[in-house]
Amino acid sequence: MSRIPDHPTDPRPAVLSATVACLAAFGAAIVGSTGPVQRAPLLLAGIGSGLYACGIVLRRRRYRFVGRGATIVGPLVVGGALVGIIALSPPLPTMLPVIACGLGVAFLTAGLFPIVVRWARQCAVFGVVLLLGGVLANVVIAAPSIWRSATAATLVVLSWDAADRAVSVGRELGAGATTAPVEVVRTVPSVLVGGMAVVLTVGASRIPTAGGTVFGVLLVLVATVAFTLVLSHIPHTSES
């Protein structure tokens, strides 16, 4: 049962949902990538974003020296990874999705583990938009397998859903509340919806059709999952 303070004073995003959102975003970037030229910088960008997030958490728990170091090193690792892919000068269709996905994961992490709380939602949304753009660009250009494409697109939507939940729960309950039970209850249905969406999309892709593309199938998938998750948020919004 959640311990809810009478007057929440700290609207920081809830840590559990923020972590789920960042992991889903990183998973989307990796699953949607093709080849070591794309995966290597994305792995480094994910490691850098993770260092930054750990640094923020450590600073909140009074390990300020270690936390401050991690929040400095993390962005440097992300920047180094993205500069590295530019220095390698791969073809633009290979490089641009990597930059979009890497920046997307970084902005999402910065929004959910913020230094300035009032910019949390805007920063997180910007990160998700960049990530979605990078994933869809890779689908069109590199044409990964349908299950990889469907999984990556679904993980992007799940990262958006978890990010929105992290910000909303943080504002509703504050950092003084035990939010894990609330977050778990709201996360499980989203994961089930996403899993079913991937299964149905892969199944539908194996049905012979007269036309259509993987990109079109993915747009339908993203729209369907997003619509379902938005509907699932309506009762929570009306109750708050």
From TrEMBL:
Keyword Transmembrane carried by entry: yes
Database matches in InterPro entries: DUF7519 (IPR055941)
Entry keyword GTP-binding: no
Organism: Halovivax asiaticus JCM 14624
One protein family per Pfam: DUF7519
Residues that span the membrane, as ranges: 12-34, 40-58, 70-89, 95-117, 124-147, 188-207, 214-234
Domain of life: Archaea
Protein name: Uncharacterized protein
Alphabetized UniProt keyword annotations: Membrane, Transmembrane, Transmembrane helix
